[in-house]
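User: Run a structure prediction on this.
Assistant: Running it now.
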Amino acid sequence: MATIRINKEFGFEMAHALLGYNGKCSNIHGHSYKLTVTLIGSTIDNLKDPKNGMVMDFGELKNIVNNEIINVFDHALVLNDATPDKENISSMPVFEKVIFLPYQPTCENMLIDFASRISKCLSSGIKLHSLKLRETDNSFAEWFAEDN
């Protein structure tokens, strides 16, 4: 059996602000994020299994990422939990979907979070190999299992 990597790309829109940052990113702003998820495993070798020849059905991967990442973060305002006056922010009608995280919502920190969320949903024998989160066309961060 061969070890194969499968990839699926996802997109979502999200706004954030970096608490205490000394630049423009301290202000609320948004990005069109592109997330690439790479899994690694062996193909199913069982003619009786409808998923014969697959590492994982791409539809299953889509469901996991949609449930754990996209449905949570898409069109949300994401802020550090230490943001002052967060009760007032949450109560403003213009901010219907505000998420306060226990970390600074940088591309790098979100990848650590996303890796944990996705990994816990994978079946035995399938592992998260890497994640790539593109914040803009020319800025991205990557997470690799082998580094962690």
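The first helix runs from residue 58 to 73.
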